[in-house]
Each structure stands twice: as C-alpha cells, then as structure tokens.
C-alpha cells in the first residue's frame, strides 16, 4: 500500500520545523519549514554521544572508565542518575542513561569529561551549521547563560539520523555505538507513539517488524522527536520540532496530536500495513 503523505493540521501558534525523508533514497516525503531553527531541548545530546563514541573508537576514552559526577553541574529533572545511591558509573553506562532516559546528570558528567567547547564543535565539524548542542543542562536558565541547551532544524536533524543509520558519522563503528545507546530510548510519546512499540523493550525488531532509533526533547514550550525507523517495506529518517515560547496557552496537546499523525504515516510507509491490520 502506498502512503499518500499529507501534512496534518499544525497549530499556527507554534513554530514548526518538519522533515521526513526516505532512508535509502534521501527523497523528501513530508516537510514543513525544514530550515526553521528551533530550540531543541535534549536533542543536542546526540552530538555528545557522537563525541563520546568517537573518543572510544580512537582509544582516548574507555567504555569501562569510571567517571565522577561533577558537583558544580549537579542537575535533576530528566533521568534517574540524580536519584541513584551510587552515582559513580562508567562511560558506557552514563552514555546509555543519556540515550535511554535523556539523563541530565549523566549528560553533564560526560560533557564535563569531554569539554563543552569540544562538544559544541561536533555538529559544525560534521557540516551542520544551524544545529548543535550549546550548553550544559541547567536547573535554571538565567539571562547570563547561553540561550538554550541545544538548537537545530528539521533538515539537519533528519540528516543526522539518516547518516547515523548509514554508518556515515565518523565511521560505521561510531555510528553503530551511538544508535545502540539510542535504541533503549523509553520516551515513545511523540512521533513514535504511533509505532505502537513497547516503550521499554524495543531494541530489536518489535511491532510489525519495526526497528526504532530516536531521541526526544521536551520543555514546557517545546516538543521534538528525531529518529530513524525501519520496517519490512522500507525506512525513513525524520525530525519534527515545535516551539511555542511566549504563547500563553500550553500547546502540548495539539502539538503531540500532530506528531502522532505524522508518525502514523511513517508507520504505514515502513510496514505497508494499515493500523487495523
């Protein structure tokens, strides 16, 4: 069955950046303002994982290397490390926490280990000019701090996910390691909600043969989901971002509804099956 791609109704009170591309041909399947730059919350953590994986591949970091959590960058909210009794973990486990739970404290620990400027340079070094990780995760973002933890466009973020899936980010080994950390992402509440996967167990092919590797970002004025999903009928890379900073209403309901509508078309495309089949 062929998908008739159609952009769902997008609440015009939000700023949107959307791009869905075929995973093999790179052909655009669906897009809306793909070059609009949005604040992307936790999405920039992908570039941290890329830098960690690159250093492991180069031998300058070890998977089993234990890392102390820096007290000056203590942070709570997203993740579980801040609630754990023993917070001294190895590099591999910290990266897994970032991939699985977007763990803020694990993020800051690895950022401190690698150096913020080095991680800021990852996206530009890969050729992305409008997308990057920009700062540590903070409990409060005051005017004297960088304006956002990360930013990006749908065009560049969809390409990041396509390139990871193709093994083109530094090397196949580096790309595969990053995807392995992202494989356990437990947040399937946005675009990926329509894939109907088990949120806690989808490392391997799951519902209707789909394999998902993705990252989400969430703030009180933003929802972002970027990923790569494959199935028996094909694969796509996608990036969907919505910001509504300064809007009086909380737009999460209409934003998430639109994301799910996009996700349903992606599911249909990669599986060839209608929802009721």
From TrEMBL:
Coiled coil: which residue ranges? none
Pfam families attached here? Beta-lactamase2
Q: Which InterPro entries match?
A: Beta-lactam/transpept-like, Beta-lactam_cat, Beta-lactam_class-A
Keyword check for Hydrolase, yes or no. Answer: yes
- Top-level taxon in the UniProt lineage: Bacteria
Q: Does the keyword Acetylation apply?
A: no
Give start and end of each Beta-lactamase class A catalytic domain: 18-241
> What terms describe the molecular function in GO for this protein?
hydrolase activity
Which keywords has UniProt assigned to this entry? Answer: Hydrolase
| PANTHER family assigned | BETA-LACTAMASE, BETA-LACTAMASE-TYPE TRANSPEPTIDASE FOLD CONTAINING PROTEIN
- This chain's protein is named Serine hydrolase
């Amino acid at each position: 069955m062929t998908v008739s791609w159609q952009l769902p109704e997008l609440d015009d009170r939000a700023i949107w950046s959307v791009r869905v591309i075929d995973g093999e041909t790179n052909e655009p399947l669906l897009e809306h303002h793909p070059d609009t730059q949005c604040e992307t919350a936790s999405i920039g953590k992908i570039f941290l994982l890329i830098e960690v994986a690159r250093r492991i591949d180069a031998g300058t970091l070890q998977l089993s290397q234990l890392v102390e959590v820096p007290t000056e960058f203590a942070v709570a909210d997203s993740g579980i490390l801040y609630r754990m009794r023993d917070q001294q973990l190895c590099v591999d486990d910290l990266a897994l926490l970032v991939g699985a739970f977007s763990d803020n404290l694990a993020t800051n620990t690895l950022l401190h280990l690698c150096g913020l400027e080095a991680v800021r340079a990852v996206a530009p070094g890969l050729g992305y000019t409008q997308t990057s990780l920009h700062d540590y995760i903070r409990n409060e973002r005051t005017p004297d701090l960088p304006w956002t933890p990360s930013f990006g466009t749908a065009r560049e973020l969809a390409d990041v996910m396509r390139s990871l899936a193709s093994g083109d980010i530094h090397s196949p080994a580096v790309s595969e390691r990053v995807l392995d950390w992202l494989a356990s992402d437990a947040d399937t509440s946005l675009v990926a909600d329509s894939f109907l996967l088990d949120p806690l167990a989808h490392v391997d092919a799951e519902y209707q043969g789909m394999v998902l590797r993705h990252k989400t970002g969430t703030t009180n004025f933003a929802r972002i989901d970027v990923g790569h999903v494959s199935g028996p009928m094909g694969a796509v890379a996608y990036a969907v971002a919505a910001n509504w900073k300064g809007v009086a209403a909380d737009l999460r309901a209409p934003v998430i509804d639109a994301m799910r509508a996009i996700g349903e078309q992606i599911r249909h495309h990669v599986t060839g099956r209608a929802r009721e089949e």
